[in-house]
Amino acid sequence: MANITDLEAEGTIPMSRWEMATSALAVGIGLFVFYTSFFGAFETLIQRAIFVALITCLGVLLFPLGKGKVWRPVGAVIDVLSAGFVVVSAAYIVLNFESIMIDLPFAENIDVVLGMGTLLIVLEMARRSASFVFPFIVGGVVLYALLGDKISGPFGHRGFDVYYLTEVIFLSDRGLWGMLVSIASTTLAAFILFGALLLHTGAGQTFFDLSARAGGKSPGGAAKIATIASGLFGSISGSSVANIATTGNFTIPLMKRLRYPAPFAGAVEAVASTGGQLAPPIMGTAAFVMAELVGVNYWTIAAVAFLPALLFYLGVFSTVHLIARRTNLGAVDQGELPNWREALNWRRMGPILAGVAGLAFGIVNGNSIQLTACYGMIGIVVAYAAATLTSGGTLREVVLTLLRALEDGGKGVVIVGILLVAAQVFVAIVNLTGVGVAVTSSILELADGNLIMIALIMAGVCLIAGMGLPTSAAYVLVAAVFAPVLIQQGLDPVTVHLFVLYYAVLSVITPPVCVAVFVAATVAKTNWMQVAGQSLRLGGTAYAIPMLMLIYPGLLLQGSALDIIMALLSGIGFTLGVAAFFAAQPIFHRFSWVLWLVPVALLLIPQWPATIAGVLIMILFWILARGQKPRAVPIPASEG
């Protein structure tokens, strides 16, 4: 689809009315986000209702019903009616918001029609923009609320009629206009726009150039470029699929050109892109939701997530490095790498530094998260304009770039916004019916109070529940229902929510429903099952990191300085040991790689003697392993 800014100096590229409307509305949403970030959001229900109406209308334009089909004219009529219906519902809320918040009105027939109709349209938009899985779950929970009195046993409840459900879903700030929608329309949207401005003003190329300089010259250089670049991109974009579609379309062909096996190339990109959803500042948009659900400051979430994210990428990078040495995967030719002067080009670095400075100013000044993001955006815009105009660029170039960023930022809000609207309904119904309490009781009874068993059950449940869902939806689903199980065991809520988030995110590389693997396999033009196998290998450490959080709270900056030091030493040693194990790195003969499990096991014991012993054994093994000469062994098809 054409962008509103795809213009040439002496003319314009023809655009259909549909495309013009899409681009204009996307820019409008971007401006709405910037305005409310700087001047402050409107009254709660007004802000949320306007936001839902805007993203629904843009969603209809981005994901038209029956596109390319002979019955598209019918789909167009349905799209127009759907968008109009949600606009009317939003206007109804805006006009009556004081009554809704003060009088708590009873639902009438018109409310039922508007409320349930809006919910159905939101679920349909979630189906179009993501998949049928999440709207199916949300729809099922709504039916469960209606029919719970017909269910016997612990999962039954008294049941609620459609009028009461309408009061919860439509005539309150718990359903369609609830807390998650507030997050989506303010803090989350502000950071998505911040990321779009950053990428469009030069950060994208800078990230890739720095990644190339950092890893390109060493063994497996192309895979290391993919690992670093995908981590940097993913920390801003917050979507593994979008990450693969951007960096992967360059890194995967580069790896294949250097004779890396296609499944290995796809797996590197899939795993590295997935890690971006666990890396601050955006964390796949989950950081903002988590801060609200847990009741802590967003910056606290970003801070405690840093060390686990560092371990994630240390594990991937180390595994790639060891496999590359063992199988003679080559580096990128020096002539293909940018020099440091190009990588640190001042015109591209200026907006990055100014954006970070803007964020720092907002943090030091104690401003709200969205205003802090706005200061970062202002810094980016000013620095980019100055750099462009002083280096021979034109004002038109500046305006078009900023419009393109606003447009992409507006479009970026749509999918996550729609999913969070549906997710808010899910949370409201879970709280209303008490099904979360029933699930908690069932898991506790099954595990008989054993924390290790509870954690393993939770990990499996989160991996399954998150399959086929985008990060934000997967996290909300599992957090709302399953997080209380671990919290009831006395664990810190932040630890529990990060535990849940990790396994919900890792579901995108976990067979059989591994969305990131499917996309990477498509780009690599290879069998997805082989990519999935290599992804499990490269991401082996990632599956253990949440368990490490439970064992070592110091990884989340909890406890004394000594606790944090022990956690960091154990975490690094554990990560390197698991990486060496999955890379089958021999220590002194071919099958000695299994001995890496010895220090790994020691480092799972949170006691100083075990930590010291594990670290010393790790150092000894690494010294011995470095003495092993790499053998020219290609990765066979079954591995590759």
TrEMBL record:
The keyword Thylakoid does not apply. InterPro entries: DctM, TRAP_DctM-Dct_fused. Residues 119-551 form the TRAP C4-dicarboxylate transport system permease DctM subunit domain. It is found in: Cell inner membrane. Keywords: Cell inner membrane, Cell membrane, Membrane, Transmembrane, Transmembrane helix, Transport. It comes from the Bacteria. PANTHER family: BLL3936 PROTEIN. Part of the tripartite ATP-independent periplasmic (TRAP) transport system. This is TRAP transporter fused permease subunit. It comes from Meridianimarinicoccus marinus. The lineage of its organism: Bacteria, Pseudomonadati, Pseudomonadota, Alphaproteobacteria, Rhodobacterales.
